[in-house]
């Protein structure tokens, strides 16, 4: 259904991508569990020909995601994938080739480094720069694609999307923005000049920790077609059940992300009070290094808080002492989770660095749990 810009976020998310109402029909049709379709005659123009190409359940979810990333823009199209990394790979591997240059964040999601190594092996020049301070400006000349991740994961730095997109376009480069942490309700990269909005729907978009999913949204069919072809060629398709679960979960996106953002700010403020905690980061903190830039382009500041504890042992004692916060990777779920990021070895962070994903529990309970765990870890 067409997006109505008069409606607020809470109204739009519960109706995004739904079909026209029909008597006695479910508002959100169930998953289309099929590998093939009845396909008589000429296949040209057939909306559904084979299960690797398209699925009605994907179509509904893609319509919904496009409505959220680009409200009111009928030209926006989404392509959903089996995971966030599949979505990231689809853009990077379909847009750059031997002899091209691509700019990646040096502090982005750690698997970007693996993709960068693969690109180098194919003859692509891979340049990196940190997110803070719009440092990518210094390495843009001659690049074919600029990849931004803002806020960055796990450090939570922010760059100016509009400024960087304008600079990249002046130099003939395309711009992709990883919008995973912000979600479409927190930030709209396409409205800020990006060519692609990319995200892992595994995180806050679906929010329940039970679905792996990714998506790419763009406004230009010439940009969308190579991404869809990449999905078809490598088979990086989402299951219909996962797609249906994701669409169902969108209805609570506004409620979940608003609660998480408020809770995250409360937890960040509490963490700063403890003498054993340093470098607390959350874009919503008024004196956070990223706050000024975030306030210009974000509508809410996300669910992730990062901070550093004195050492590895302290961090592990803290995590073990938490009652309401599970020790797990990923972020964006309704249940709070945390982990010591150094255990993966892919992020340039101290041994005591913790990434905390704040859920929808009562803020007072989370704050009390964090404070108690800090005291037990200290003792």
Automatic annotation (TrEMBL):
EC identifiers of the protein: 4.4.1.1
Entry keyword Metal-binding: no
Domain of life: Bacteria
Enzyme class: lyase
Cofactor section: pyridoxal 5'-phosphate
Modification N6-(pyridoxal phosphate)lysine occurs at: 203
Keywords of this entry: Lyase, Pyridoxal phosphate
Alphabetized GO MF terms: cystathionine gamma-lyase activity; pyridoxal phosphate binding
InterPro entries in UniProt: Cys/Met-Metab_PyrdxlP-dep_enz, PyrdxlP-dep_Trfase, PyrdxlP-dep_Trfase_major, PyrdxlP-dep_Trfase_small
Disordered as annotated region, ranges: 1-25
GO cellular component, one term: cytoplasm
Cross-referenced Gene3D superfamilies: Aspartate Aminotransferase, domain 1 (3.90.1150.10), Type I PLP-dependent aspartate aminotransferase-like (Major domain) (3.40.640.10)
Biased composition, class Basic and acidic residues, residue ranges: 1-12
GO BP term (any one): transsulfuration
Stated family: Belongs to the trans-sulfuration enzymes family.
Protein name, as recorded: Cystathionine gamma-lyase
Organism this protein belongs to: Streptomyces carminius
């Amino acid at each position: 259904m067409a997006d109505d810009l008069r409606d607020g976020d809470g109204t739009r998310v519960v109706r995004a991508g739904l079909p026209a109402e029909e008597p006695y029909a479910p508002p959100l049709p169930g998953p289309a569990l099929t590998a093939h379709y009845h396909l008589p005659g000429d296949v040209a123009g057939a909306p559904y020909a084979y299960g690797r190409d398209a699925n009605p359940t994907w179509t509904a979810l893609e319509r919904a995601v496009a409505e959220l990333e680009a409200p009111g823009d009928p030209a926006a199209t989404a392509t959903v994938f089996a995971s966030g990394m599949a979505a990231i790979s689809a853009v990077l591997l379909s847009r750059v080739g031997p002899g091209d240059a691509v700019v990646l964040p040096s502090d982005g999601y750690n698997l970007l480094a693996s993709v960068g190594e693969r690109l180098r092996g194919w003859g692509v020049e891979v340049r990196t720069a940190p997110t803070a301070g719009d440092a990518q400006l210094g390495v843009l000349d001659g690049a074919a694609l600029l990849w931004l991740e803002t806020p960055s994961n796990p450090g939570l730095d922010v760059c100016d999307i509009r400024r960087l997109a304008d600079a990249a376009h002046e130099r003939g480069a395309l711009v992709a923005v990883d919008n995973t942490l912000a979600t479409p309700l927190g930030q709209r990269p396409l409205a800020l000049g990006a060519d692609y909005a990319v995200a892992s729907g595994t995180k806050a978009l679906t929010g329940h920790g039970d679905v792996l999913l990714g998506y790419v949204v763009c406004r230009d069919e010439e940009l969308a077609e190579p991404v869809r072809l990449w999905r078809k060629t490598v088979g990086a398709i989402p299951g219909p059940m996962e797609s249906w679960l994701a669409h169902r979960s969108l209805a609570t996106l506004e409620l979940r992300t608003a609660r998480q953002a408020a809770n995250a700010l409360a937890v960040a403020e509490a963490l700063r009070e403890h003498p054993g905690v340093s470098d607390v980061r959350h874009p919503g903190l008024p004196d956070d290094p990223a706050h000024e830039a975030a306030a210009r382009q974000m509508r809410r500041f996300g669910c992730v808080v990062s901070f550093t504890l004195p050492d590895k042992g302290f961090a592990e004692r803290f995590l073990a002492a938490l009652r309401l916060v599970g020790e797990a990777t990923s972020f964006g779920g309704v249940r709070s989770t945390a982990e010591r990021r150094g255990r993966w070895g892919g992020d340039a962070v101290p041994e005591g660095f913790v990434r905390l994903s704040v859920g929808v529990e009562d803020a007072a309970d989370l704050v009390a749990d964090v404070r108690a765990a800090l005291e037990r870890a200290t003792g």
